[in-house]
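Aim 2 progress update. The chain analyzed this quarter is reproduced below.
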Amino acid sequence: LSPGAKMGCFTFIKVMMILFNLTIFLGGGTLLGVGIWVTTDGDSFLDIFGTLSSSVVQVVNVGYFLIVIGAILLIIGFLGCYGAQRESKCLLMMFFSVVLIIFIAEVAAAVVALVYTGLAETLLSAVMTPVLKEKYGVDQRFTEIWNVTMTKVHCCGLSNYTDFNNTHWLETYGTYPEPCCKPSLAPCNATLAAQSQVPGCFDQILEEIKTNAGVVGGVAAGIAALEIASMAVSMYLYCRLDQK
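Predicted structure tokens:
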């Protein structure tokens, strides 16, 4: 290519890099804002989006998760956008390094999730089951969230009905939550819950993921492709700056 064509190609890629990372920066700012909103004013968030859609907000504190993800996207977007605009080799290399670290972490997490699914279930049960035992039947909003989740997902507890053993609910009412038994079986005692064999919510979530494995895999592949493309573009700009 002629010097003019090379310069035009460089300028085009630079502009695309700026626009792409500006989008990431704005997206990160949005997620950060939502995360702060959920963390500081969760009640208004629940009122707007409803109980069912906010179940994860109570079970897993998604507010802090959104803050972390938003902050990371803000950093990536700033490094990529400002680095390309200022043609800063330092910022471009930092952008490349951050995206590479995230890419490696995602690959490692995917491998661990595939190989150690049982371990993940054990760890999650060890963390969440005590919370479920402590709050179910005591915290009204927490109880309502779990009831709606179990009814909609057709599951019981995290692993099964035994997660509700020694809970305030069982000690007070002498029964297990209604979703732990088949609809025709009431009141839901230990015998009927065992006969119903309602799966735990963790198993149901895994089943949903497996059912939609194609969609999940496609999204993961798309994200990985964007990350690889971003690293390639940043390295191209980095190398081209030496030739300017």
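Residues 51-60 have pLDDT under 50 and may be disordered. Residues 3-40 form the longest helix (38 residues). These observations will guide the mutagenesis experiments scheduled for the next reporting period.
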